[in-house]
Amino acid sequence: MSAAPGLLHTVLGAGPAGTSVALELARRGHAVRLVDRAGTGEPLDGVERFAGDVGTVEGALAAIEGAGVVHHCVNVAYHLQVDVMPRIQEAVLGAVARTGARLVVLDTLYPYGETHGEVMTEDTPWRAATAKGRMRAALDENYLAAHEEGRASVVLGRSADFVGPRVLNSTLGGAVFPAALTGGEVVALGDIDLEHSYTSVLDVARGLAVLAENPSGDGRAWHLPTAPARTTREVLTALGELVGHPLRTVTMDEARPFGPFDETFMNSYAELFYQHTEPQIMDSTAFRREFGVEPTPIETTLEQTLEWYRGFLASRAKG
User: Fold this and answer.
1) Same domain for 72 and 124?
2) Gap between the Cα atoms of 219 and 155, Å rounded
3) Mind telling me which residue stretches traverse the membrane in this protein (predicted)?
4) Are 264 and 204 contained in the same domain?
5) Are residue 190 and residue 115 in the same domain, yes or no?
6) How many angstroms separate the CA atoms of 109 and 159, rounded?
7) Disulfide: which of 113, 139, 175, 204 matches 187 by Cβ 3.0-4.6 Å?
8) Cα–Cα distance, 5 to 170 (Å, whole number)
9) What is the mean pLDDT of residues 31-42?
């Protein structure tokens, strides 16, 4: 069974992931509404922008009115997540429970906690010990309980660290690509000789769209298509080859402000720094086998990201 073409999809959150999901859904022929507080931004072909606050059930109901599928891609500032994300979940779950819309949730690897290099699959135990990890695990338990109890139809799509067009606030984002293009210092975190999974934000979009179109996947978490893990050094070397010169890489062995990440962010991120002191290896084989979707090779993702950053830097230079 697949979701009907043309069914209204409401995407909550207009960050890099939400925007990419909206564009992917429109490309597939769906009617798409993209919701954030402002309701403004770059024009997106086939996408209606909508200003809404999904922090209350009433606000969420207004945002998802008429939607058959709701994509929850909302994120908030790191230091606010533990307090704010549960309230957003309560509002969004309450809204879809009233309307009957299916809920597709963009999720993280945080519930697994420290793995000591173990390959993460959908069967990996949830052992999070950090505040954000425990919060994310509790959210996921609530989502899956809502599905199991018949209050809502829910599916979770988990991603590793983002990389791709529009991705700025990522360890492979705004502190890497501009410097790679201009010859500046590229900042990398932790031990860059450890294997680390990076998920293309365009694969996040494809994966969530596939989950939206296939209700047979509901009621569980899936690892979204993610290229095989490479060491961060290998990724940065490949990036240097694409820009035509070796990168000037500087590594940081502790959480401190750099690039787009201020002190408030990094103080809040410190509890998750283990992601850069042990291998972070995410396996998405189950998704490929079930839905036939292959991840984009990391070299292709780097090329796509460079192309976007060239345009981004050129537009900023023009003022």
Assistant:
1) yes
2) 5
3) none
4) no
5) no
6) 7
7) 175
8) 33
9) 95
End-to-end CA distance of the chain: 49
pLDDT beyond 90 at 63: yes
Place of tokens 């999904």: 54
Instruction: Measure the CA angle with vertex 104, ends 100 and 108; round to 5°.
Output: 145
| One domain, residues 133 and 91 | yes
Report the predicted TM-score, pTM, of the whole model to 2 decimal places: 0.96
Q: What is the DSSP letter of 110?
A: G
Confidence (pLDDT) at 5: 53
Does residue 291 sit within a domain?
A: no
d(CA 122, CA 221): 7
pLDDT range class, residue 6, cuts 50, 70, 90: low
Token reading at 288: 């490929």
3 state DSSP class of 129:
coil
pLDDT at 258 over 90: no
Percent of the chain clearing pLDDT 90 (strictly above): 93
| Better pLDDT: 142 or 2 | 142
pLDDT of 259 reads 77
By C-alpha distance, which of 25, 137, 28 is closest to 70?
Answer: 25
Q: What is the dihedral of CA 217, 140, 15, 201, to 10 degrees?
A: -50
Nearest to 308 by CA among 42, 37, 40, 12: 42
Nearest to 265 by CA among 81, 127, 83, 88: 81
What CATH number is attached to the domain comprising 18? 3.40.50.720
Q: Determine contact, residues 206/21, Cβ cutoff 8 Å.
A: no
Half-sphere exposure of 184 (CA within 13 A, CB side): 12
Quote the CA–CA distance of 141 and 303 in Å, as a whole number: 37
Residue 255, C-beta contacts closer than 8 angstroms, at least 6 positions apart = 266, 267, 269, 270, 273
Residues 254 and 128 grouped into a single domain: no
Q: What is the mean pLDDT of residues 86-112?
A: 98
Helices 131-148, 81-99: crossing angle, 10 deg rounding: 10
What 3-state class would DSSP assign to 154? Answer: strand
